[in-house]
Amino acid sequence: MFVHHVYFWLKNPEAAAEKARLLEGLKSLQTVETIRTVHIGVPADTDRPVIERGYHFSLLLIFDNKEDHDTYQVHPVHKKFVEDCSSLWSKVVIYDAVDA
Amino acid sequence: MFVHHVYFWLKNPEAAAEKARLLEGLKSLQTVETIRTVHIGVPADTDRPVIERGYHFSLLLIFDNKEDHDTYQVHPVHKKFVEDCSSLWSKVVIYDAVDA
Lengths: 100, 100
Prior knowledge:
3 helices, 4 strands, Dimeric_a/b-barrel (chains A, B), Stress responsive A/B Barrel Domain (chains A, B)
């Protein structure tokens, strides 16, 4: 498995229209054929010092292997998402993990 | 869905025995009944400035809902893991996400 988890911080989190645009963009990614599991999230209401809850959206994508992840990275749908939405976020943090 | 993703930084990453103990501890968690999906990971070899790859292990747990996550948090298996292994890590970062 290849687990790709992306956390997004919005530039203007109080701008509802921008938030909606990013969510729409994230949803568009689901059509990429090599994705096995997808979850588009927002912070849960858990709150302990070790919990990072400052992000605005999370995108969890699980692929069968790295090759499928690489296909996603250069996929036209992903490229369009970055083009359309990258101006909306101020920060992105990515964690990529493979089987231990 | 409730997505619980934990990233661990080992206190002594060069100590193979400690690494193995943490991995064993992480594997023990898989028996908790409320977990739907589990992935124990290590950083992939992807490497871009936005990618955080300094951690040593990741633990992705997907639950059907927050209630199932809460059950896990107080489960004896989880408590034993924290007891046995918390001395091994120097840092833990958790991201909890619910459906956007």
